[in-house]
Amino acid sequence: MDHFNYQPDGRLFAENVPVEDIANNFGTPCYVYSRATLERHWKAFDEAAGDHPHLVCYAVKANSNLAILSVLAKLGSGFDIVSGGELARVIEAGGDTSKVVFSGVGKTSEEIEFALDAGVGCFNVESEPELHRIANVAGRLGKVANISIRVNPDVDAGTHPYISTGLKENKFGIAIEHAPAVYQQAMAYDQLKIVGVDCHIGSQLTELDPFLDALERVLALIDQLAELGIEIEHLDVGGGLGVPYKDETPPHPSEYAHALRQRLIDRPNLKLIFEPGRAIAANAGILLTKVEFLKPTEEKHFAIVDAAMNDLIRPSLYSAYQSIQPANTSLDRKSDIYDVVGPVCETGDFLGKDRELAIAEGDLLVVRSAGAYGFCMASNYNSRPRPPEVLVDSDNAIEVRRRETFADLWKGEVVLP
Ligand code: LLP
């Protein structure tokens, strides 16, 4: 459930604010987030895990705006990061670095040093060379690095191939059968402290089974490690829980967390770490866009809008479906079937295809479920300034990132004499 609802007069509200007011104040295209929705989704994980020791580490990559991070930091959230830049954002937003887990296959020495200096909670190690690199950097700094090995359990997440990560053919993690040997290598380093096992099998999962299959395999590994004298304090189950974009019916976060907890009844001290991104942010955001032109052609009717693939790339990149609706359903309009496209010079620039919409030029449209992997994947392609981000908190609409100007487009560039 989210806090974007139509009122009886046909207007869409973000919490207590009509989205057309936001468009009037901040222009379009514009991302709009709901604080109450973000908090609700984060708490769904936290409360479902209940009294089992746990930490919800929001995956920063899903939406890294400082306002979003600070809202979650205030709830006591941890953070899953994949770069020095994400760590810098967490620090800037007031996040607790001891609750940070650092994932990613290509951590540089500089990033590892930054993370050790900042006191991150744990490195999720994705390869043997990375293990040695972390040990070297920690040794040089005279620090001890907490580590967890990200294992690849070879489970098919049943999701889009670009966002599936837990198969042997994927670049992520260390093959689960090889993990005990790597843990033994880690044991040999004084400057490494083994604290966990980590696993993330993919994103936008809509079934529980792949999660539970992976869990069984990882729990078997934890037992195997115990026999080798390696004590595991936490199990990081990654992120990946899907959201309803169309007619999917993914498990609710509480159903998911309960299912995991049940498998851990006989392991009351094994701390659970979650790394949800999409399940927290996707349906806490929308993208507002205005219809510039309606362009009927012999083959198709196009609704040309002022948002494009550079603002929201998911439809173009993954053929992802995101619902598109008018911001006001009470207007007297004739319905038609449209491809909703942007102004970018690419045939792949679309937000939705074959959508039935009752619209006219100048109308405001809403792309739903745009809070995750929306703005953070936006670019300046076609020299389009990136849109503003507005966070609604009850009656207040706060601009949490202003629209870029033309001068922002060439920031850092030079004109040759
Ligand atoms: N943890 C790790 C190690 C990850 O790689 C990811 C996402 C997450 C957590 C968070 O996953 P989530 O809960 O959001 O599914 N741009 C794509 C999604 C890429 C996900 C990459 N990794 C999209 O727009 O669908």
Automatic annotation (TrEMBL):
Residues binding substrate are R278, R314, Y318, E346, Y373
Query: Which parts of the sequence belong to the Orn/DAP/Arg decarboxylase 2 N-terminal domain?
Result: 36-282
What's a BP term from Gene Ontology annotated to this protein? lysine biosynthetic process via diaminopimelate
Indicate the residues that form the catalytic site: C345 (proton donor)
Its recorded reaction(s) are:
meso-2,6-diaminopimelate + H(+) = L-lysine + CO2
**Which biological pathway?**
Amino-acid biosynthesis; L-lysine biosynthesis via DAP pathway; L-lysine from DL-2,6-diaminopimelate: step 1/1
Q: How does it assemble?
A: Homodimer.
Question: Which class of enzymes does this protein belong to?
Answer: lyase
- Start and end residues of each Orn/DAP/Arg decarboxylase 2 C-terminal domain: 30-371
- Listed EC numbers: 4.1.1.20
The record describes the protein's role as:
Specifically catalyzes the decarboxylation of meso-diaminopimelate (meso-DAP) to L-lysine.
N6-(pyridoxal phosphate)lysine PTM sites in chain numbering: K61
Family affiliation: Belongs to the Orn/Lys/Arg decarboxylase class-II family. LysA subfamily.
UniProt cofactor(s): pyridoxal 5'-phosphate
InterPro entries, from UniProt? Answer: Ala_racemase/Decarboxylase_C, DAP_deCOOHase_LysA, De-COase2_C, De-COase2_CS, De-COase2_N, De-COase2_pyr-phos_BS, Orn/DAP/Arg_de-COase, PLP-binding_barrel
Protein name in UniProt: Diaminopimelate decarboxylase
Instruction: Show the GO MF annotations.
Output: diaminopimelate decarboxylase activity; pyridoxal phosphate binding
Quote the record's binding site residues for pyridoxal 5'-phosphate.
Answer: G240, E275, P276, G277, R278, Y373
For this UniProt record, give its keywords in alphabetical order, as a comma-separated list: Amino-acid biosynthesis, Decarboxylase, Lyase, Lysine biosynthesis, Pyridoxal phosphate
